[in-house]
């Protein structure tokens, strides 16, 4: 087969979504990993703003008067939540639109895990990164949403996890991975699950085998979106993995026992163009 070229396709017309989905979490990073600026940005996205930044004391949630429908009106700083390139989105037929795989430069390492009031976040130590289209971005943190934020052909997964990265130039790239129920426990996810109940205000120190937590196949769809919670900043590069990771029912139950409704509904695509690169080999 001849080499395929990148082709810009209107999402609506093509019915394809490449995901470069950024979720709303930049998250704080472990002390060894993050600069002060990174920590602040991450905290904002993860909703830690109440405790980390006096200027960001506006409370938001996933329901009722401070829920997703009201985020943009809660604060001028959340105005982007009503903008036109928001995340998450519904992804249609991802298998037909796989993008080049990212290069994963993860290794086993120290993690600081904590409950930020909206999710449980695992901050990575320095030294983990991904390379996408020649740009390398440092892994800041991973956190979860339940149910999934992105939907595949209109269907939610029980949980979606977001691996949040930031480049030296300040651009965010988020890898979204669906978590589905499988027959056995997933050992790579055991440390996260074991520390999932760490109370707010305390931090659990653990170790992740980061590369083992990703799906075996790294095929994904990409799109340009936003953080999925206030301030809903756009310009986030999303990669939503085609393959899920499977955890046991007990592992999933442990996660959703902490939060089971911390997802933003899918947002309008608004004719956003996506870049689709068929698999060529
Ligand atoms: Zn997220």
Structure explained in plain terms:
The structure is a single chain. The chain is of the alpha+beta class. The protein has one domain (8-269): Roll (Carbonic Anhydrase II). It has six helices and 15 strands. The chain has helices at 11-14, 36-46, 49-52, 71-74, 190-194, 249-256, and strands at 7-10, 90-91, 103-105, 108-115, 120-124, 129-132, 135-145, 151-152, 159-167, 172-181, 203-209, 220-226, 234-241, 245-247, 273-276. Strands 3, 4, 5, 6, 7, 9, 10, 11, 12, 13 and 14 form an eleven-stranded mixed beta sheet that branches. β12 and β13 (234-241) form a beta hairpin. It starts with 6 loop residues before the first strand and ends in a 5-residue tail after the last strand. Mean pLDDT is 82; it is low at 1-22, 24-55 and 276-281. Bound molecules: zinc ion.
How would you describe this structure in keywords?
about 280 residues; alpha+beta; Carbonic Anhydrase II; two-stranded antiparallel ribbon; 6 helices; about 15% helix; globular; disordered C terminus; binds zinc ion
């Amino acid at each position: 087969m001849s080499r395929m070229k990148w082709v810009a396709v209107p999402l609506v017309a093509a019915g394809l979504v490449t995901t470069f989905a950024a979720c709303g979490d930049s998250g704080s990073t472990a002390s060894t990993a993050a600069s002060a600026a990174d920590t602040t940005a991450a905290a904002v996205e993860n909703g830690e703003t109440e405790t980390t930044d006096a200027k960001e004391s506006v409370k938001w949630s996933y329901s009722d008067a401070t829920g997703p429908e009201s985020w943009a009106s809660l604060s001028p700083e959340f105005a982007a939540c009503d903008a036109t390139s928001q995340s998450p989105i519904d992804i249609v037929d991802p298998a037909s639109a796989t993008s080049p795989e990212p290069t994963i430069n993860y290794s086993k390492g120290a993690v600081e895990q904590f409950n930020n009031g909206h999710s449980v976040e695992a901050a990575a130590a320095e030294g983990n990164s991904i390379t996408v289209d020649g740009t390398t971005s440092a892994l800041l943190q991973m956190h979860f949403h339940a149910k999934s934020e992105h939907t595949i052909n209109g269907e939610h997964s029980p949980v979606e996890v977001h691996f949040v990265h930031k480049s030296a130039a300040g651009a965010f790239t988020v890898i979204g991975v669906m978590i589905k129920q499988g027959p056995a426990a997933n050992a790579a996810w055991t440390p996260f699950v074991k520390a999932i109940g760490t109370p707010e205000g305390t931090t659990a120190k653990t170790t992740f085998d980061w590369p083992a937590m990703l799906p075996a196949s790294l095929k994904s769809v990409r799109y340009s979106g936003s953080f999925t919670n206030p301030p809903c900043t756009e310009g986030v590069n999303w990669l939503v993995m085609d393959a899920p990771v499977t955890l046991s029912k007990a592992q999933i139950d442990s996660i959703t026992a902490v939060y089971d409704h911390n997802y933003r509904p899918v947002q309008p695509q608004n004719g956003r163009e996506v870049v689709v690169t068929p698999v060529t080999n």
